[in-house]
């Protein structure tokens, strides 16, 4: 894989080198290419507002279901990227370009997942599992080992230069401890 292999053709037929794009520009192209679920702007946000305020909410609200679907679309793409498949007949330079393209794509997918709340130089190892993604903020140079889980039903913020080991799970979700609140008497 040579530097010319970093060139893709957009939906509009334009040829671009992905390594010359910003993470945000590449994220927009990936969103279009993979037809990632878009969130319609006109949906009622009451359930999401309640969720973020840690009040009881309906997790099957259409906006929340779409948010989880979007997150799932992105995490599937992120988790299926492989950095361990260099061709045996490729040169060292070609392998380095392949790694650059892969890392740029990973950063673009994380940018999509967090709705742009992604610091510089983050390294998140796959696989990951995320409820929504857009309630999560990652600071600069965050490192997270594989099998990370984030249930971001409430805002989750990870500060600059934080290192999280493999299998770390961050839960912003809980359920009412009082059973009468979970199952109201009728």
Report on the structure:
With 186 residues, this protein is α/β, with parallel strands linked by helices. The protein has one domain (3-182): Hexapeptide repeat proteins (UDP N-Acetylglucosamine Acyltransferase, domain 1). It is 34% helix and 15% strand. It has 5 helices and 10 strands. The protein has helices at residues 23-33, 46-52, 62-80, 92-113, 179-182; strands at residues 7-9, 15-17, 123-124, 128-130, 136-138, 143-144, 148-151, 156-158, 163-164, 169-171. The model has no long low-confidence stretch (mean pLDDT 86). Belongs to the transferase hexapeptide repeat family. One of its GO terms (molecular function) is O-acyltransferase activity. Keywords: Transferase.
Write the layout of secondary structure elements.
Layout: E1 7-9, E2 15-17, H1 23-33, H2 46-52, H3 62-80, H4 92-113, E3 123-124, E4 128-130, E5 136-138, E6 143-144, E7 148-151, E8 156-158, E9 163-164, E10 169-171, H5 179-182
Parallel strand pairs: 3-6, 4-7, 5-8, 6-9, 7-10
Antiparallel strand pairs: 1-2
Helix pairs in contact: 1-4, 3-4
Family: Belongs to the transferase hexapeptide repeat family.
Keywords: Transferase
GO molecular function, one term: O-acyltransferase activity
On the 0 to 100 scale, the average pLDDT is: 86
E-strand count: 10
Q: Number of helical segments?
A: 5
Strand order of the largest sheet: 3-6-9
Rg is 19 Å
Please provide the ordered H/E string of secondary-structure elements. Answer: EEHHHHEEEEEEEEH
- Helix vs. strand class: alpha/beta
Amount of helix: 25-40%
Q: Largest sheet, described in full?
A: 3 strands, parallel
Family: Belongs to the transferase hexapeptide repeat family.
InterPro entries: Hexapeptide_acetyltransf, Trimer_LpxA-like_sf
Keywords: Transferase
GO molecular function, one term: O-acyltransferase activity
